[in-house]
């Protein structure tokens, strides 16, 4: 894919970029290494100050960056502004808590025969971040804030359809006062990722993206024995039990599925309603889905904008056509919006079976599949049969059902009476084909640190004194 800004609401190509040459990439890696030499010696308090400054810069740039994201990938303006706010919050979170997270953690020195023993988290160097277009600012910030706080330096290979946002992120850290080259954007195609990852000067990589992209990065990193964190696809279940507040559950179901125009790894994609409430829940869900305003993402009242790419919409159309051909029922939607731009109507399907392609894939668009189940156990069994295990949602007032869900659902995140959302205060990540490692909180920061064990024995002079004393006794 060419590196270009193409407005998804119109299909118009607005700006194109030449990818960096291999020599330019090598030179940028060299600059990152140089930057790391000094940056690793800065204090956590200094880094916290720069993170706070970056949050302030973002606050000031909110409208401009939000409009840029809308233009590059089509999310609604309201969603884009919320994303900018979330990034500022994430930066402030690490500015506030990062220094304490990096304090040495004392161990029981006596138990290991030491005078002192502790663990200290040290930066590991240059970290490559391969990031997707769906939350173009947040996904990069979720990596950058903890990584820079820990003293690492970052190289960002962003998705090819959000180059201006990618360049803005580099500029943001510069404007905030971080030392030069601590965070650089590499405008390169995906083929260059292997070259960067294999470079001895690069210590580790994080990727948020598709499972095939994750496999590729993991296998290269495995070959050169480098640490990776992978946040891949999701097809989160959303289970509605009879005790749930159905109207509220249906309202949140719509947001959970259609957030970001249906293009989020943690969007709820598979819905399970208990037979006792299935008819009513389906009615409410379909009604609310069909009431969504689809249109110009810059308009204030728009709730669902276009899909980010033409091929993305074609993929969604293929999944729905295949399901219909194999017997699924379209309750609402099921078609593109005529006219320019890559719009697709919020869609609800029932009667989805394992023969249909969308059964065990991830549909990256506003398409929900709904099953009627006879028990929570049945819902969990179908949910767990999917290769992904990112987030999961349960709606129930019943304590026993909540406990069963939390115990048995195969997911990195379990949300009850709410939708899966990322917060700096909670770890984020999945199991199975959804990847490994965690982002956010101190866990996210420690992924790219060397947890160095320090054991310090008594000084030789003390040992000698001890020997002399016991000899004279
Ligand atoms: O595609 C992944 C979406 C993550 C969104 C979030 O962190 O809120």
Which properties best describe this structure?
473 residues; alpha/beta; Aldehyde Dehydrogenase, Chain A, domain 1; Aldehyde Dehydrogenase, Chain A, domain 2; 2 domains; 7-stranded mixed sheet
How are the SSEs placed, and which strands pair?
Blueprint: E1 3-7, E2 12-17, H1 22-39, H2 44-73, H3 77-101, E3 105-106, E4 116-123, E5 126-130, H4 138-149, E6 153-157, H5 163-175, E7 183-185, H6 192-198, E8 202-208, H7 211-223, E9 227-231, E10 236-240, H8 246-258, E11 268-274, H9 275-290, H10 310-325, E12 329-332, E13 347-350, E14 367-373, H11 376-384, E15 388-389, E16 391-395, H12 399-408, E17 413-416, E18 431-432, E19 435-436, H13 441-446, E20 449-456, H14 460-472
Parallel strand pairs: 5-6, 5-8, 6-7, 8-9, 10-11, 10-16, 11-14, 13-14, 16-17
Antiparallel strand pairs: 1-2, 3-4, 4-20, 9-19, 12-13, 15-18
Helix pairs in contact: 2-3, 2-5, 3-4, 8-9
The structure holds the ligand O=CCCCC(=O)O.
Family: Belongs to the aldehyde dehydrogenase family.
GO molecular function: aldehyde dehydrogenase [NAD(P)+] activity; succinate-semialdehyde dehydrogenase (NAD+) activity
Protein name: Succinate-semialdehyde dehydrogenase/glutarate-semialdehyde dehydrogenase
